[in-house]
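Good morning C.,

I know you're traveling, so I'll keep this short. The sequence:
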Amino acid sequence: RDMRELHTLERGEVRVGIPSMLGSYYFPPILMAFRHHYPGVRLEVIEAGTRKLQQMIHQGEIDMGVIVCDTPPEDLETHCFLHAQMMAILPADHALAQARTITYDAFFTEELVLFKEGYFHREVIARISREAGVTPRIGFEANLIPLIKQIVSHGYGISTLLEMVVADDPGLVAVPFSPAVWL
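The tokens, ready to paste straight into the viewer:
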């Protein structure tokens, strides 16, 4: 409903919650197009993890949010706009960088650089590690994607991101999991 009302909106404010990875690598052109179509509307972008964004939607703190989920919550109106694989991110010179896929066993033998709790990628890793019966070796926790990329590129651990995040970074390689993890 709120989006339909925007078609006639000339002034006002829209508060949108977006996870950092999508906000940094997928949404900039979309946000700029919105700004071009609605120059009188102030757009506030709030960065947070999926669970926090769902909470903010329910509490009316944001008008809409982008969440990452494998099963859409029934209490929210949702629309799928991106289906992508979660990838293992490795330094280009890592022993597994040339592999076609990476198994969960191989992934969990490495020291990991992960998002903090409350982020979907972290929840997926927690679920996979529980199912595999292993405890992840978390060397770093950070929500800053440039920091995660730097830590991985310097060989201090491996991580999980979407392929689009490292597409232009020759020092990093994205390898799909086997079995694949889809977002």
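Safe travels,
E.
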